[in-house]
Amino acid sequence: MPDRVVPQRLPPLNALRAFDAVARRGSILKAAEELGVVRGAVRQQLNLLETYFGVPLFDRENGRLVLTAKGRAFADSIGVAFGILARASAELSEGNRRTLRLGVPSAFAVWWLMPRVADLQATLDGIDIDIVPMAMVEPLARRADLEAVIMGGEYRPTRDITAIRFMEDEFGPVATSDVSSRLGLGSGVAALAGAVALGSRSAPSLWDDWFSESGRAPVRFARKREFEDLLLAIGAARSGLGVAIAPRTAIGDDLVHGTLVAPYGFIHRPAGYSLSIRSSDTKDPALVRLADWLSRVGAAQS
User: How far apart are CA 8 and CA 46, in angstroms?
Assistant: First the structure.
């Protein structure tokens, strides 16, 4: 029987949990709420961990904790490690049937993924897919409870994360035909100055991106309305509240049925959508099947 390898001494688990929570949540208060302890206990664990390593993991700036370069690299690795432990624990408790937890922007989940989820489930064959909608999308490095996250737009993965682009997209302003006619949007972009611009906190830069990437001069809107989620902003456009900026994938059926019109068409956005997975999982058969399905179906949509 081969000799058992004796593992190296590891830092205290509670200190690692506290550090991971602070790194993900961005504050000691939020970390304490997540862990169900008082703030002083979290501070104590952070001090213990820094003493253990003998290096600072945070800079203290005006009462705020900001990860150092070494702290950020360590946080990324801890996130991967906790993710592996969480998945292994879930598989052990669930028996032979595995569940993939996939974080998805809530609007994208509703308009694109859920209508196709039966086909995805059939492709995974024996592996359940748990779609976790995210109003504010967080990178995978901050979500140890997820195995993969779909990201929209420009995304630069960290060292331990691999991003697989699976679909391009187009985006542009949309409104009901009544709103478009009343504002005279067909006469040119300058007519947007009379519009209520609908946006979302989950994708706050879409209007600025559209003006910049389309080469059109920005206008000063009559009013702006910001919703928590892009899904709500598009719903407000459908009701005639104003003009929303939306990905074409979100409103394809609306265009076909005439619910919404796109007076300026759409501009191509090659960044599109990507699947981010942990680099240690790139050969995981379930995640390979998921990535292959997204690439196949996404290519058919582009």
Answer: 21
The structure's pTM equals: 0.68
Least confident of 75-84, 101-110, 190-199: 75-84
Same domain, 259 and 215: yes
- Residue-range definition of the domain harbouring residue 80: 76-168+271-301
In the DSSP assignment, the letter for residue 145 is T
**pLDDT tens readout for residues 46-91:** 999 989 888 889 887 776 788 888 888 888 788 778 877 776 676 6
Contact 30, 17 (CB under 8 A): no
Q: Which residue has the tokens 């024996």?
A: 126
Q: Specify whether 86 is located in the same domain as 52.
A: no
State the DSSP string of 51-109.
HHHTS-SEEEETTEEEE-HHHHHHHHHHHHHHHHHHHHHHHHHHTT-EEEEEEEEHHHI
Total domains present in the chain: 3
d(CA 94, CA 84): 15
- Using DSSP's 3-state secondary structure scheme, residue 190 falls into helix
